[in-house]
Amino acid sequence: MQQVSKSPILVKPLLSKETLVKLTVFDNLAPALPFHFQFAYRNEKSEPNFMNATELMSALEKTLSIFPIFAGRTVRNNEGEWFVDIRNETCGVPFTIAQANFNLDDFDKGDYDQYPKDLYTQWKGIQDAPLQIQVTYFKCGGVLLVSELLHQLGDGDSHAQFLHRWSQLFRGESIDNIRYDCLNRNEVIKVSNKESPKSFPFWTQSEEHINYEELYAKIGQCTAKMIKFSEKELQAMKKEAMSSIELSNANSWISTNDALCSHMWKLITKARNLSNSQTSCLLHSCNVRKPLNIQKDYFGYLVMNGQSDRISVESILHSNLSTLAPVSRHAVNRTMDKQHVQDFIDWISVSKKVRPSDMHVLFGTDVFATSWVAFNLFDLKFSNESPIFVGEIPTILDGVFKIVEGVEKGSLVVQLSLWREHMERLLKDPELHKYQ
Fold first, then answer.
1. DSSP letters for 253-273
2. Per the structure, how many domains does the chain have?
3. Is the pLDDT of residue 189 over 70?
4. CB 173 within 8 A of CB 59
5. Whole-angstrom Cα distance, residue 145 to residue 169?
6. Are residues 141 and 259 in the same domain?
7. pLDDT tens profile 44-67
8. Which Pfam families does the record match to this protein (predicted)?
9. In terms of residue numbers, what domain contains 130?
């Protein structure tokens, strides 16, 4: 029987900075949900002191002294605005040391139905620490590190950058060139002097409340699986996506991400067994640091939805990648426009309780894609050994997938969450690996 024993410890910064940090309009926009990174390490040389917990906590103390906001506790005022309080005596990062009586290879790290539920922490509400870490030591000598972060504290880029800084300090390296003070985010995300837009595409002001009880009952019927695509498959996808007549001019470009996301969009739409008259759109999670000229070491939430035009299900099912991929690229390009991003900041700074106006992902018709490829997760080394697996823990939603690096050169892995019946249909679809 698989068993995991846990010992939680609160890790505090070596140097404290008592203050209340007001988060930005972007941070306030983020969903109040956590997300998990997981890293599996083989311990190839069977070192008895591999990724020593005491040394990990010591390096974490130093990292939190440089980035104290990650040790804070989130609070909200009556207006729904988020703050991080690092004045509280309970501040610190819960660091759980766990021991497993089974091996690292005894389960599929991307399969919800196989994944042991005791290998990670779980944020349950605003009373919990927004950053939590668990390190599990397995019978074989391998190690699994899972880091959980609330979206209000940072997006995937911020989460990855924090972990990379932690690993640097663990290895005895110094941290240089920190351009931004993590306690003064509002000095970076600024409203312009222009008049705020009266409205914004794909968004609306709304007091609508989500019925979470009904939603969670449905989510319980979902599962998550991992789908691997080789470099050869990805090259074939991109070749087809670039074959369109519309892309013949030298200024046109389609990414591998566009091709893969469009392929998954079509497969998910087909698996959902929607009627031909229904419509669907593809949404991308777009990191908007670049159009704002903000560097990677900014810690915060800087993500916008890149929403495509709506297309009929019939058109999606009868289109190839040379038609669908340009739709994906257009959604990303218009979202990453500098003026578009600044207008959005100006609009949400004066608009309260905003939400997407035409997005129907969970148990709907739309598909949401996120890429973690740019985070260089395989470079997270706490010794001289790279992880053998990176990605998210298997998370159940519906119509949502994340793209992460694969172990094999040039490969990518799709971590997909879908209604169980639809997942079974998708995995049996002969079109899934048609580009092999």
1. ---HHHHHHHHHHHHHHHHTT
2. 2
3. yes
4. no
5. 16
6. no
7. 999 999 999 999 999 999 999 989
8. Transferase (PF02458)
9. 4-187
Query: What is the pairing mode between strands 367-371 and 400-405?
Result: parallel
Same domain for 134 and 207, yes or no, is: no
Q: How many CB atoms lie within 10 A of CB 81?
A: 15
Contact status, residue 231 vs residue 412, Cβ threshold 8 Å: no
Do 118 and 227 share a structural domain?
no
pLDDT beyond 90 at 215: no
For tokens 């991992």, name the residue: 226
Q: Quick check: 250 pLDDT over 50?
A: no
Domain boundary among 159, 187, 215: 187
Dump pLDDT digits (tens) for 391-408.
999 999 999 999 999 999
- Measured CA to CA, the distance from residue 426 to residue 436 in angstroms comes to 17
Q: What is residue 143's three-state secondary structure?
A: strand
Angle between helices 53-66 and 156-170 (to 10 degrees): 120
Distance (Å, whole) CA 433 – CA 84: 46
User: 432 lies in a domain?
Assistant: no
Q: Are residues 158 and 46 in the same domain?
A: yes
User: Biggest alpha carbon distance in the chain?
Assistant: 63
Q: Would 360 be classed as within a structural domain?
A: yes
Return the pLDDT at 209: 63
- How far apart (Å, rounded) are the C-alpha atoms in residues 316 and 207? 33
> Average pLDDT, stretch 175-189?
81
From 187, 213, 238, the end of a domain falls on 187
Nearest residue to 68 via CA among 136, 155, 165, 135: 165
Query: Is the residue at 85 inside a domain?
Result: yes
Rounded to whole angstroms, how far apart are CA atoms 40 and 47? 15
CATH classification of the domain holding 264: 3.30.559.10
Residue located via tokens 């992460």: 404
How far is C-alpha 259 from the chain's CA centre? 20
Q: Does 340 lie in the same domain as 223?
A: yes
What's the pLDDT score for residue 199?
A: 84
| Kind and range of the H or E run holding 355 | strand 354-356
Residues 15, 48, single domain; the answer is yes
Token pair in block for residue 334: 């218009």
Burial class for 229, CB neighbours closer than 10 Å (0-12, 13-18, 19+) = buried
- Report the alpha-carbon distance of residue 37 to residue 393 in Å, rounded: 7
Alpha carbon 4 to chain centroid, angstroms: 26
Summarize pLDDT for 405-429 with one digit per residue, the tens.
999 999 999 999 999 999 999 999 9
Give the mean pLDDT of 361-376: 96
